[in-house]
Each structure stands twice: as C-alpha cells, then as structure tokens.
Amino acid sequence: MARANSGTRRPKPNLLITGTPGTGKSTTASALAEATNCRHICVGDLVKEKNLHDGWDDQFESYVINEDLVCDELEDVMVGGGNIVDYHGCDFFPERWFDGVVVLQTENSVLYDRLTRRGYSGAKLSNNIECEIFQVMLEEARDSYREEIVIALQSDALEDVSNNVASLTGWIESWRP
C-alpha cells in the first residue's frame, strides 16, 4: 500500500477496513487497533449509539445509515489520524480521510457458514453472498480511492486474521508523516 498523498501531516495513518459482512472487519480492526494503539471506529456501532440513521430496513434487518450524519460525526476525529475505521461500505467517506483501504475477502462457503451462524437468511443472506462473489466491495473501493492505497486481503481463518494484523501493523509502524 502506498501513502495517500505527500501532503498528509497526520502522525499516524487512517485506515479503512471494508468488506462484505462476515469477512472479519471488526475482528481485524479491533486486533489491529490494539496492536498499534490506534482508535477503532466501528461505523455500525457508531450509527446505533449516536442515532446516525434514517430508520430501520425490515427487509435487510439493519439501520438505514445517514451518510452525511456519519461524515459530520467523524470529520474532526479523522483529521488527527490514528484511526482504524471498519464498515461494509466505503464510497461515501471522503477520500482525504484514508491513507490505506483494506478490503477483506472470504471464500464463499466460509462466508455462507459465518452469515448463517449470525442468523442471516433470505434476501439478506443471498445479497451478501452475491456481493462477495462479484467482488462488489473491492470494486467500490477501487472506484472510490486511488488504486495504490487499496489492498485486498484474504480472511478465511484465524491464521489469516493474524497474518493480516501483523502485515498492517508493520505498515502503520513504518508510517512517516
């Protein structure tokens, strides 16, 4: 992963960890934040805690995120750097916020098992599996950010999480503003 831009003056980088639900975003982001002394921001939790949504979607059993409210809430925090943001979408965040974008990917049968254990079924399950099959999140990340700051990492097993955290920890520790 390359640096976002040479004008960045943050003491630590901001990293976005994205991917289809069930790919290990929160697990990876939490472990990485602990390893690097960065702040973990789980956007899904933030949306619930601060009511940054426009109601509930019964079909997908989730809140309808208000992207403008989320961005307003995070703007000042992101300027300081040292944030690891995890969310299953990425196209609404300002490009200037992130120095690296990680898209976690999971083999479809592994993802299917994870999501069914979470209680996903029907349209919610099939929609998320299709998103992974067609690499929707990777395409969204590449469309939203400079390609050199976007990296796809496999996240099928705990060993993958450990390897990803170690690799990303090295990247964060080598950061030079």
TrEMBL record:
It is an enzyme of class 2 (transferase). It catalyses: ATP + H2O = ADP + phosphate + H(+); AMP + ATP = 2 ADP. It holds the Pfam family AAA_18. Residues 42-65 are annotated as: NMPbind. One of its GO terms (biological process) is ribosomal small subunit biogenesis. Residues 1-26 are annotated as: Disordered. ATP binds at residues 22, 24-27, 118. Its EC number is 2.7.4.3. GO terms for molecular function: AMP kinase activity; ATP binding; ATP hydrolysis activity. It is found in: Cytoplasm; Nucleus. The keyword Glycoprotein does not apply. Keywords: ATP-binding, Cytoplasm, Kinase, Nucleotide-binding, Nucleus, Ribosome biogenesis, rRNA processing, Transferase. Residues 117-127 are annotated as: LID. The keyword Kinase applies. GO terms for cellular component: cytoplasm; nucleus. Interacts with small ribosomal subunit protein uS11. Not a structural component of 43S pre-ribosomes, but transiently interacts with them by binding to uS11. Belongs to the adenylate kinase family. AK6 subfamily. Broad-specificity nucleoside monophosphate (NMP) kinase that catalyzes the reversible transfer of the terminal phosphate group between nucleoside triphosphates and monophosphates. Has also ATPase activity. Involved in the late cytoplasmic maturation steps of the 40S ribosomal particles, specifically 18S rRNA maturation. While NMP activity is not required for ribosome maturation, ATPase activity is. Associates transiently with small ribosomal subunit protein uS11. ATP hydrolysis breaks the interaction with uS11. HAMAP family: Adenylate_kinase_AK6 (MF_00039). This is Adenylate kinase isoenzyme 6 homolog. It comes from Brassica carinata (Ethiopian mustard).
